[in-house]
Every structure is written in C-alpha cells, then in structure tokens.
C-alpha cells in the first residue's frame, strides 16, 4: 500500500438557491489556508436543486474540526443547505450481510484487503454459517444471526443491536436473501446498499435470470441501489450489463451475472465510501 | 464493392427429433458435390427443439434448384422439419417505413449503399414528406402514404398493396411512429422488424427516455425485435446499451439513444437478411 | 430543435499556481451578477499543472464582452494563466476533409443537421469528387482541391487559402487519405482532429485492420486525436472498441471498424466544439 | 452444484482438405448410436485450413474409448487431420503460478470452488510464501519454489518435476512475475496461459499502466494468451477493455486493470478447459 496521503475534508451539499454559493465556499477554503483538491457540481433543472462536492486539503488549514463545522453551519444557514461533512482519516464502518453465496462477499473482502474500499469492513453478518470461514480468512469478525420465519423481528432486533454496538455507518447486502422490514430500512436511510441481479427496473423481484431467459433478452445486467421500503425501487447507484445469447442457459446466465453482481456492488460501495453519491428524491447524483 | 462471391444455399431448420439429422444433411451436401461453408446448431433443452443453419457452395453442386428443393422436402418429411431455403443470389427485398426522424433511415440506406446489408432496399414508405429527399439522395423510391386517424385501415390497405406489388420480403420500421394493426402484422409473421428505444422489457410503451430519466438508470438501451400483435413484446433480435449519468438530461439521452437505435436496427436487419435468425415461440436463435 | 438557450461563456484555464484561483474566478462571476452553470477542474500531480473549465450564464451579467476579456486578463496575470474564452452564441466554424469513404462524413453532416454538433459545418474539402453529392445533399459547400504527388505544396496552399477565407476554426479529417505537411499542421495546433482506424498506440500506420487480423486480436478500436507533426502520435481525445473473433475476416473488421470510426470521430468533434478538451503536453484533459 | 451431466466426448480437428469431413464425422457419431450435442466449424481462407469442434453424448454410444480412438485415427488418416480427443469425465489438471498479487489467484480458486472452471486445480506454485494462506483457504496444495537469480534453471527443474509428478495438463500464470525460459515453454506448447496487463500488442513489456498513462489513452485492457518463447507475443485467447480518463492516475489504472485481468484470465482458462480453443500459427480459433 502506498503511504497514507494527508487527510482531506469532503463536503457534500444540496440546496435550492445557489447564487454565490460556489464563491462563498471557495472563499471559505481559500481564506483559511486550504487548497481545493476536487470540486464538482450539478444543477438539476427538473427539481431546481443544486448539488456540490468539495474536497480540500487539511494540511495547513487554519481551522480545527469544530471550527470547520461552525463555519459550514454559518454558510449553510445563509444558503439553506443540506450538507454532510466527512474526513478521509475518519473512515466509515461497514457491515456486510450475506447468506450462502460467496462471490460478492469475496469481492468486498479482497477489495478491503487491497486497501481500495475507502472504509473499514468491521463485520460479516449472516443467517447461515456457510461463509464463516471466508470472513475468518480475511480476519473480519463473523456474526451468525439466524432468521426464523416466525421471529424475523427478533432477528432484526439482534442485527440492529449489533450494528449499533459496532457503530456501523453502512450496511451492504451482498446477495443477502432476506427482505428487511420497513422499520429496519427507515432507521438507516441512504445507509443500506443492495445488489439486485438484474438490470432494474426490468425483472423486479425473484428469479430475474429465469425471467431474462424467458424473455429472450440479449443483454443481462446487475443493479446496485440504496434500499428503501419499496422492494427493488430504491435510488440506483450503479449498473452494468453483459451480452448473452440463446446459447446461455439459466446456469450460464447465473455465472455471467455473478461477475456483474460483484463488480457493480463493490464499485457502488466504493463510490458511497468515497462520498461521491448524493440522493435526490429517488435518483442519485454520482460524482465520478 | 468486392467481386460477388459464387452463390451459396442457406438452409434453416427446426425440428424435434434430431437423431441422425446432421449426418443426413451433411451427406446430402457431400454426395451431391457440395462443400459446407458454415454449419451451426443449437439444441434448446427447455422446448426439446433443435435448430440448424447450413450453408453450402453451389459451385459444382450437381442438383439444380428444383432438385434441391425436392431433396430437402424428402429429408424434411423423414425428420418432421420446419425449414426455409434461400440463395445468396436471390436477394430479399426490403421496404423501410419511417416518419420524420432520419437517423435510422440514413444508417440503413448507407449500409445498403456500401453493399453490406445483404438485401435490396426497394422502397421508403412514410406518412410524411420530410424524408423524401433522403430516399432520393440514395436513389431509393419514396412513397408518401398519409395515415389519417379516421382512416388507418385505408392507409394500411395502400401500404399492403404497395408491398405486394413490389414483392417485399421484409418491412423495417425505422422509428415509424404508427402502430400497425393486428391484421397487418398477422399477414407478415417474422417479416417486420421494429426498433424500440429502450432496453426492453424495461420501459415498454411511449417516451422511454423520459421513463429512464425518471427512474435514474445508469444505462440506457435499444432493442430490435420482430413485431407481433402485442406491442413491444415480439421476439428480440438484438439489443445494445450505453452508460449515462445524472448529467444526461432527456435531450442527451435522446441523442445517445439515437446512436444505439441505428446501430442495433441495422445490425438486426443484417442478421435477418443473412438468414441468421430463427424464431422459437417468443425468442430468437441468432447464429452469429 | 428546442429553443436556443440563453448564451453562456466558457473559460478554459491551465496554470501552475492555483491557490485561490477557484475563489478568484467564482467571485468574479458572482460579483458581476453571473450564475455558474458548470465548473470542473483537474490537478495533474505529474506535471504540477491545474486545469479548469468554468461556464456561466450571460443573462443578467453586468459586464459586456470586452469588459469580460479585460477582467479575465487581469486574473490571468495574477495567476499566470493560459486561457481560452468562448461564447456559445459565437459558434466555431468547421471544415471537413474527406477523400472517398463516406461514413464519417455522413455522420458529421447528420449530427450537424440534427443540431447536436455545437459548431457550424461550413465546408467539405476533398481531393476527389466522389462525395460532392453528399455535401450538397446536406447543403454544405463542397470544394474540390486535387492533390497531385508532384505538387502537394500547391494543393495545401489552396486548402489554407480556403480555410482562411472561410475563417475556419477547426479542421476535421474524416478518413482523409493524405498526410498533411508539418507546416500545415504547425499552423493549426490543437485545431485539426483526425480519426485513426485502430486502438492507438497499437497498429500505427497503414492498414491497421490487416495488422489486427494478423495479430489475432479479440478487440478492435478507433482513435480520434489531434494531429501533430508526428504521424498518429498526437494527443488522444477519444477511443472506443468492439469485440471481434476469428470469424471476422478483414472485410468484417473494416465494416465493424467503420461503426467505431464514425462514432468516435463525431464524439471527439463535439467534445472539442463544446470546449471540453484541454491539451497538456501530449495528453488531453476531457471534461465529460 | 447441479448433478453431473452424463459424459460427452469433444473432438477438435484441423485439416486442409475438408470435402466430406463433416459428413464422415457426423456419420461416425450417428451410426454408433451417438447424438451430436454441439458442432462448430471454421474455414480460414488465408491459410486454407479448416477447424472443427464436435461434441457428442457418450450415453448409449456403442464404442468404448479405445474403439473411439481407433475409429478417429482411421478418419484422421483419410483426411490428414490433426486432432485432439477428450472426455468431460477425465478432467484436466491445472497448476497456477503466482507471486504476490492475489486477485487473479482468488478468481481462479473461487471459480473452481463454484464448479465452473471445467478442470481440477491441483496446485498453487509460488516463488514467495505470501499467497500460501489463500491456497490453503481453498484447500489447494501450495508449493513454495524460490527463484534465485543465480539459479533460475534449478528452480525451473523443480517446477517441472512437480508438474510431472502431479500430471499437470495446464499451467496458468496468474500475474507470475518471472519470465519462463524457452526450454520450459517449449516443453508445454499451448499448455501455458498468461495474463498480460495491457491490450496487446499495445504496451508490450513492463509497466504497461505507466505506458498507458504516459500515452493518455482513453481505454485500457488486459490480454490472456498462450505463452511462447517470444515475450508477450503468443496467440491471444481473450481480451477485454474498460474506459479510463485523465482523472485516473496510475494507481486507479492498476485497480481498474485488476478487474480486467482476473476476468479475462479466468475466462480464458475456462475456454481452454472446455476445449473451445484451437491454435493456428499465431492466432486462436475460439468456439464460443
């Protein structure tokens, strides 16, 4: 791994009245001795909203973190900003939920081990024991929380207690085969990422590869999205596709799909952890 | 254009009991002095059907065309084949239906002019006069057949009379903005190709780019399919996709989509005219 | 075509010392009543250079164009900027050079006709008469300037006089089969775009599809680049690729390549005309 | 894993005079009670060679394996065939060579564990101990054979003895950072697969991502090829690419490249093990 670079601050903002906002924020960085590393913005004419991502070096910055927060709060009031401020040296804590399929879990764990995920993988949670050795191999604690049909609420209560005790910022569903309750989801808005094994909105629901085969499509896909209370309808973070043909039976589609699923999921998690994703109603702005 | 190669025969077959079929057909070609140029097959376990495409050189073949037909009929009875036999020197006759958008029409006409389409483009038919100069530029006759809401049946009758008089084998809907009646479609099963400007089955119906924007997808697509009586539900011949982002407004999606539409449509028409496509229920087998 | 939006100014800058630059430029826009429409930047650690693209609305802006120029000059001196300022209502003038192959020319002309090119196509120049009817069909003046081996300098002199008289900003080589002299090229740095029919730097020079077939590659490509005095070595603007197989003979590669060539060239020209491309030594920064 | 299907025989042939060959081979299968599962062929006009892959069910086939071999030998003499005959229940034995980078190794091991590789992974061989725990995790024996600069021959002798003792059919270089000697390579023609981290033939040799960055390409690639005595020049089995931009520094290119490398390598190994690859001079025919 290369040397850790000096920390940076990342500010994400959304607002309605933007006149002078870029000037105000860049002046704030400049006047306090900072250097803008990256700045990106997007105006959404449909909603009238404006989005911005601003990254600056903390090396030589004259304000400390409480002072930064205070200064941003001041600007936020002036422009009615919604905002989110993070630092690269305060890494997000991630829990992966999985069931029996290992491919997405391996990809996340390997990406983490190679130091490219942008967060800390602190737990693997599963309703089965099949993947325990995978988590152990990568030195990530494994938590077995069985989910019985007659007591899903009890299982979710245990999961939530665990997530709270581990101070988890992001939950990643890596082909986790249980539907989370609306209560669980409402608790973590924009903090649960799922991988769906189709090109949403095509093939919502169960067995999308069988649906794809049935329809005779020539391209299959995978979709990473934030989980909302509506199944398979949350804001899409990333998607990808690959070509298939009549020669691909359902087994082949599943194999090709696995490739897509793990790539798209890991990419989406990385985008989230690098603070590149903003949610606007049911869509995302992804600053690439 | 390169020299015309010597003609070949292309046989497409579908059947249920295939034991000995490849041996019988290859013996038929060999024993009559032919040389197999290309052979491809596909067994579909779901339906129990078997599909084959066989291409052989006619140079030196001892049977003439009526005799070939007779011999194939003999084999077909033995194996209960559905079959279709064509010759590369008897080119299919194609009519393109368009309305006002020129991009797909240009692509087909240019592909035809470059000698890569595999058929003869004998007519451009439109309910408007906007594209007349395009057809004329490429020396293809243009036919203006207005379609009035109160007399669609009359317009279709004129269209059908024209297609019959021109002995048209294939109708290509190049962003033709009228829905064909079930009667028109039933008359030409597997002989009408449409381009839909979405990744079907996502975004069936009108304004798919607006639907795509609304859903916040990260990939858009286009689909070429045979027209059946169910709107946007016919067998898919080809599809393609491209990445989009939050930066792409609907105008951009339409522009990127145009690229996809014309590529996918021209490719599908060429696959059809090269006799590479077989239809099985609501899916296609495309021998690439 | 939709209504013309109100004009915007686009400023491209490159510099070494950037501290405070974003603040200075955004203050300049804000304090003069402008609204930033788009801002993008890139720091290149290898060279220590910093690049920025800034777009703002001119509606309500209190400075007129000479005043804007004066103000930017002031900032430019302070930060030692290299800069380029354009307005969307002062469209660039483009000449296309072609020889006999029509596909790239059609694509540019159609894109222009559909209003998506971002500049004005004012001339088609060719050493042959084959494509005259294509230019005429799209109402673009055609200029036949023969290039004889014994007097290439004379032909180039005529081309340059024509370009000067038409006040051409950008020359696009749309499969133009003549190598331009170093003098011609030196005269228009970063103002000549070529399409090379390979994935550069693989297959430099002549007959790249034959080279690709010889090497048995599984992917072919096309590359749009600025022309410099070194053949096929100028800064790359865009590239794309498609899969091929052993079944593709050289004719097929050429056909598939044509698709790539025209897409990549038109895309590169549009990126240039939208002022999204900056050149840094032998590479480009493309603000997408 | 699904039930093992009944075994099939796969015959690969290459020859010059093909007249009657398809008829002879399909008659051989039919008359002995076999059923053709898959047949594919390719005529290469440049070389005059003809290639064929024939797969048939052994269930109900009246000949045993020695008799099949005898019968094929008979046909082979008649048509001067080069041929290769394998059975799906006699799985190829594969050794993976790696050094320190884990990503390709994980991909192969996981693919093997999921039952999709089409061969048996019997050994991981490395000149370092870093990846021992990875092999162990997947229950594949790990062999540490150090390679010292002063005694590469000795190390290769140990490797070859190991491969012989394990009856290894295929060696896969999964980012193995040592160049094999011509002797080692000559010993296993068409039996060593390497992954090169560029779109060959661009960026031959060391540090291709640095070369790609230097050239400013917009697409990077990876290439799986058979190893020959000429470095990075062996027949290409598969390639893939992904888009990059000026924003991607070398670290990013390496990360994106890792994705390509492992996908392309695993795909190439699977194609080889499914007996879909034929070598003709310095190119491959890949029956997809």
Provide the descriptors you would attach to this structure in a database record.
homotetramer, 288 residues, alpha/beta, Alpha-Beta Plaits, Rossmann fold, 7-stranded mixed β-sheet, 4-stranded antiparallel β-sheet, 8 helices, globular
Note the topology.
The structure is a homotetramer of 288-residue chains.
Chain A: E1 8-15, H1 21-31, E2 36-44, E3 49-57, H2 65-79, E4 82-87, E5 92-98, H3 103-113, E6 119-126, H4 132-137, E7 142-144, H5 152-165, E8 170-173, H6 182-187, E9 192-196, H7 208-215, E10 219-226, E11 236-243, H8 250-273, E12 277-280, E13 283-286
Parallel strand pairs in A: 5-6, 5-8, 6-7, 8-9
Antiparallel strand pairs in A: 1-3, 1-4, 2-3, 9-10, 10-11, 12-13
Description of the structure:
The structure is a homotetramer of 288-residue chains. With 288 residues, chain A is of the alpha/beta class. The first copy, chain A, has helices spanning 21-31, 65-79, 103-113, 132-137, 152-165, 182-187, 208-215, 250-273, and strands at 8-15, 36-44, 49-57, 82-87, 92-98, 119-126, 142-144, 170-173, 192-196, 219-226, 236-243, 277-280, 283-286. Chain A has 8 helices and 13 strands. Chain A folds into 2 domains: 8-87, Alpha-Beta Plaits (2-Layer Sandwich); 93-286, Formyl transferase, N-terminal domain (Rossmann fold, 3-Layer(aba) Sandwich). A 7-stranded mixed β-sheet of chain A has the order 7-6-5-8-9-10-11. The first copy, chain A, has a 4-stranded antiparallel β-sheet with strand order 2-3-1-4, covered by helices on one side. A two-stranded antiparallel ribbon of chain A has the order 12-13. Chain A binds chain B through residues 42, 44-45, 199-203, 215-219, 221, 235-241, 245-247, 249, 282-286, 288, and chain B through 42, 44-45, 199-203, 215-219, 221, 235-241, 245-247, 249, 282-286, 288.
